Amino acid sequence: MKTMTLKTIAAMLLAAVTTVTAARAQDVQGDREKMMNTRWTRVADGADSAFFTTAEAARIGDNLLEYQSKEGGWPKNIKMQRELTAAARKDIKRWKAGKRYATIDNKATTTEIKYLARLYNATKADKYRAAVERAFGYLFEAQYANGGWPQFYPLAEGYYTHITYNDDAMVNVLKLMRDAARGKAPLGFLPDSLRAKAKASLDKGVDCILKTQVVQDGKPTVWCAQHDERTLEPADARAYELISLSGAESDDIVLFLMTLPHPSQAVKDCIVNAVEWFKRSKITGVKLERFTNADGKRDYRAVPCGQGEECEPLWARFYTIDGNRPFFCDRDGVKRYDISEIGYERRNGYSWYNSDGTEVIKKYEKWAKKNL
């Protein structure tokens, strides 16, 4: 009877362990499937140090080597963590032969550099270090003599050749150059010669920022989302991205400038003038209200704040060069001055308002005490 009891207990324990193991395997498989369908930049940015010691991290790193262009850059908006099938490899080869492949838009190239740098630190595999150094060569080559970067390189016809602040493209590159020049992790392994090039590239990029700061009524303000690569003047991009002062892209330019050690007087003046613009351009007494429209779709509108209601200040994505008036635009390229006047698709498919100026002003107060 005692033997039967022990066998029963053992069987029960084995069944329990099997169940837990199976459940854990399902969880792991579920986590992996979720990772495979997550935006690549989130996967890369969210990986912890331990991950880079795994075979999975190396597999993804090898994917990046295959996606890297012959010049050294990467494409955007691709889930690079996914398994590479024979069909996918054919697609990569075809894409590389086409136009507009390697870019700095949407965090492309800078994300891959940081991922491979972390992977090299964990594995010491020379192929990852070589890919990082080749990618820096790509960024050095893509930079204009005036310090700006185009959206795509090799250059593609159209607005893609403009100096691109849009979606923080150029700022992301400058942050990388700043960290490389300092030897900051994960880029501490870079040779001194490359670090010196990164410092020179950083200085040229900052000089470009200073030269492209838009002057309005005789006073420096902020920046357009893109500037002409020859004249440095504000420039159009897509039909709904007209020449403007950008309340969206300019915030991260200022935040980046405030990270520079020992800023020159020119950089200090640039920051002060930009922050003054943010202070006088904030939109108060208005909030964004979500509602269900007549078609049963989730929508939003700008409405006055209620009496006694404290609403955080907002900034528009675009302000007119003349008059500093917030405006909105549909795919027809016509300026409108109320968010409700553009169609549902562009209203909800683009970011027209933000509150990031609050962070600019808050961090400026601390920066000013130290630097002014």
Quote the beta fraction.
5-15%
Largest sheet: 4 strands, antiparallel
**Class from helix and strand fractions:** alpha+beta
Helix residue percentage: 40-55%
Strand order of the largest sheet: 5-9-10-11
**Rg, Å, rounded:** 25 Å
Distance linking N and C termini: 86 Å
Number of helices: 12
Shape: globular
Average of per-residue pLDDT values: 94
Uncertain residue segments: none
In short:
This protein has helices at residues 2-36, 40-46, 55-67, 86-97, 110-123, 126-142, 169-182, 192-212, 249-257, 265-281, 344-348, 357-371, and strands spanning 163-164, 215-216, 219-220, 226-227, 245-246, 286-292, 298-304, 315-316, 318-319, 326-329, 335-336, 353-354.
Structural key phrases:
372 residues; four-stranded antiparallel sheet; 12 helices
Secondary structure elements and their pairing?
Elements: H1 2-36, H2 40-46, H3 55-67, H4 86-97, H5 110-123, H6 126-142, E1 163-164, H7 169-182, H8 192-212, E2 215-216, E3 219-220, E4 226-227, E5 245-246, H9 249-257, H10 265-281, E6 286-292, E7 298-304, E8 315-316, E9 318-319, E10 326-329, E11 335-336, H11 344-348, E12 353-354, H12 357-371
Antiparallel strand pairs: 1-4, 2-3, 5-9, 6-7, 8-12, 9-10, 10-11
